[in-house]
Design a protein that fits this description.
Length: 143
C-alpha cells in the first residue's frame, strides 16, 4: 500500500511516501511552505492524489513524557481536515525525536545551511513513515 507521511510544522510541512511494498520511504520535494492550515491540508491532499496514496500518516508531536500540548492539537485538527477533504484514512503517529534523527542523517551526509533547511521536514516525514512501516510489519492486519 502506498502511504503518505506528514511532518506538520508552523513554517514548513514535510512529506514522504513509500513504495507499494512498504519497504522504502522517500522524502518528497519541495516541502510545503504554506502557513494557513487549510492551504496545507489542500497541498497534502494533492500530494496524496499525485502519489496515489491509500493512507495518510500525520506525525503527532507529543511531549517527552507522552502528554499532548497545543502543537499536538494543531496536528490533530490538520489530520481531521485532511481526512475529510481526501476521503482517505488518516492515522496519527508519535513523532517524538524524528527531527533529531532527521538532522543526524543530514549531518552525516554533509547537508547544512539552506540545503538542510529545505529538506529537514521532508526527511523527518520519512523517519515518521519508516517508524510506522516498521510497526505495520510487526502488526500485520492492523492499521
Amino acid at each position: 500500500m502506498k502511504i503518505l507521511a506528514v511532518d506538520y510544522g508552523d513554517s514548513r510541512t514535510g512529506l514522504a511516501v513509500c513504495d507499494p511494498g512498504e519497504i522504502l520511504a522517500t522524502p518528497l520535494k519541495p516541502q510545503i511552505e504554506e502557513k494557513a492550515m487549510a492551504k496545507v491540508a489542500d497541498r497534502i491532499c494533492q500530494a496524496a492524489r499525485d502519489n496515489r496514496a491509500e493512507l495518510i500518516v500525520v506525525g503527532l508531536p507529543r511531549n517527552m513524557d507522552g502528554t499532548e500540548g497545543a502543537r499536538a492539537q494543531k496536528s490533530r485538527k490538520l489530520a481531521a481536515l485532511v481526512e475529510q477533504a481526501s476521503g482517505l484514512p488518516v492515522r496519527m503517529w508519535d513523532e517524538r525525536q524524528t527531527t533529531i534523527t532527521a538532522a543526524g542523517f543530514l549531518s552525516e551526509s554533509g547537508t547544512f545551511g539552506k540545503k538542510r533547511k529545505a529538506m529537514l521536514d521532508a526527511v523527518s516525514a520519512s523517519v515518521i513513515l519508516e517508524n510506522y512501516l516498521a510497526w505495520r510489519k510487526n502488526h500485520p492486519g492492523e492499521q
